[in-house]
Automatic annotation (TrEMBL):
The keyword Membrane applies. Belongs to the 3-oxoacid CoA-transferase subunit A family. It comes from the Bacteria. Pfam families: CoA_trans. Gene3D superfamilies: Glutaconate Coenzyme A-transferase (3.40.1080.10). It comes from Caldibacillus thermoamylovorans. This is Acetyl-CoA:acetoacetyl-CoA transferase, alpha subunit.
Amino acid sequence: MNKLISIDDVKTFLKDGMGLMVGGFMGVGTPSSLVSAVMDANIKNIKLIATDTATPEKAVGPLIVNKRIKKLIASHIGTNPETRDK
């Protein structure tokens, strides 16, 4: 049994107000395909759990910049001025 699913199949689970927990640190190991899918689907009001918010253009940074996050739980936000300013 294959436990991997395509990004197109993942898109069927995306919805406004969902919780999203991602791994990685400063963009290394962050699921960039998932972040892109969330951006493409125009998902909003996300409750995000991540170790950091990287930089505005990297990893989950675009979600912050484009105001897709409603609630953030993270341990490091210092390198993304968009997060610090909110």
